[in-house]
Amino acid sequence: MIRHLTTTAIILMSICFNQSCVTSSKTSGITINDSIPSGTLSFLTTRDGNFEIYSMTADGKNITNLTNNKALDFWSSWSPNSKFILFYSNRDGNNEIYRMDADGKNPINLSNHPSNDYLPEWSPDGNKIAFTSDRDHKSREIYTMNKDGSGVVRITENEFFEEVPTWSIDGTKILFTRQIKEQDDTTHAANGEIFIMDADGKNEKRLTFKKGYDSGAKFSPDGKRIAFYGPTEDKNFELFIMNSDGSEIINLTNDVLEDYSPSWSPDGKWIAYSSGTSEQYDVWVINVETRVKIRLTNVPKRNETPVWRPDKKKR
Predict the structure, then answer these.
(1) Quick check: 55 and 287 in contact, CB under 8 A?
(2) How far apart are CA 140 and CA 217, in angstroms?
(3) Which among 258, 251, 255 has a CA at the least distance from the CA of 237?
(4) What distance in Å separates the CA atoms of residue 284 and residue 280, rounded to the nearest whole number?
(5) Backbone φ and ψ of 286, nearest 5°
(6) What is the pLDDT of residues 287-301, one digit of tens each?
(7) Which residue intervals of the chain are DSSP H helices?
(8) Where on the phi/psi map is residue 145: left (φ > 0), alpha (ψ -120 to 50), or beta?
(9) Which residues are within 8 A (CB) of 69 and not within 5 positions of it... i.e. 6 or more apart?
């Protein structure tokens, strides 16, 4: 496990106001107001009693319930043009993949399969969707389909549990987590590692070789780095950044809270993520360079899995 350490003294600051919090862990000479995140994020929350998909602006304001359904709604993936959001839900009895308008209207069941489908992710061109399913194996494998739900293709076929497929910036590769069972491992969670493969499932390559369960890998907007989460040697979950080839792993968050589910801002300067304890999780953002952390939610429920909306200026 590689922990990130600076060669100069680290300054720790915390400023809380109006139920929000800004925390900085950085070297001297950098102020906490270097930059302010902008844009819109989707996220999951149980603030209304069950898991729903909400949106908010990057300052933690303008919070809106998008799904507003009695069923359990999970995950979110923005279409490249920001007009639609993918998610999965059990509102039809089993977990199915849905598409809704960005304002939550017109939900459509895309998968329509008696098995369970999870974790949909738009391709960069908006024409394909990667997802996981137990339709052919109980451990879940990775599939792709057209944006309308047609043309389903199974692209992994093995005995391992796999999750969180996400696309490379050019759409030619897919990152994913595979649960590897070591011969001397008697635990259920086993060892989750980050892999990459061609979009058709060929040419698999393992990128991480860490102890513990690593997952949630996503490419930076320039495609040069990958953010993911995983445990440290003391078994606390943190956010990590590595080069696109798996080299130079850096502990980004380095704190006492459990950190999960990174999502890059469109400009690559910030990462939104889930952070907290079993009592309460909230949505935070962290500046990749300065390590400034800003807490966006503060509700005594679960607030997690934030995803940044694509930048309209780049479409």
Answers:
(1) no
(2) 18
(3) 258
(4) 13
(5) -130, 135
(6) 999 999 999 999 888
(7) none
(8) beta
(9) 52, 89, 91
Round to whole Å and give the CA distance between 107 and 85: 9
279 band by pLDDT with thresholds 50, 70 and 90: confident
**Cα(64)–Cα(109) distance, integer angstroms:** 22
Q: What is the DSSP letter of 9?
A: P
Architecture of the domain whose range is 10-314: 6 Propeller (2.120)
- Can you read off the two tokens belonging to residue 281? 């999780």
Torsion region of 81: left, alpha or beta (phi above 0 gives left; psi -120 to 50 gives alpha) = alpha
Q: Does the pTM of the predicted model rise above 0.90?
A: no
3-state secondary structure of 12: strand
| CA 51 – CA 44 distance, rounded (Å) | 6
Q: For residues 196 and 245, give the distance between their C-alpha atoms in angstroms, rounded to a whole number.
A: 9
Domain ranges of the chain: 10-314
Instruction: List pLDDT tens digits, range 165-195.
Output: 999 999 999 999 999 876 766 655 578 999 9
Distance CA 309, CA 184 (A): 43
Q: Shortest CA distance to 204 belongs to which of 178, 222, 241, 231?
A: 178
Q: What DSSP character marks residue 33?
A: T
CA atoms 113, 117, 121, 123: torsion sign: negative
Contact indicator for 53, 302 with CB cutoff of 8 Å: no
Report residue 274: phi and psi, to 5°: -95, 140
Q: Which of 272, 308, 274, 302 is nearest to 288 (CA)?
A: 272
**Which residue, among 53, 174, 69, has the nearest Cα to 121 in the 3D structure?**
174
C-alpha closest to that of 310 among 169, 99, 216, 199: 169
Q: What do you get for the CA distance between the two ends of the chain, in Å?
A: 39
Identity of residue 204 = E
CB contact at 8 A, 230 and 212:
yes
131 three-class SS: strand
CA 174 to chain centre: 14
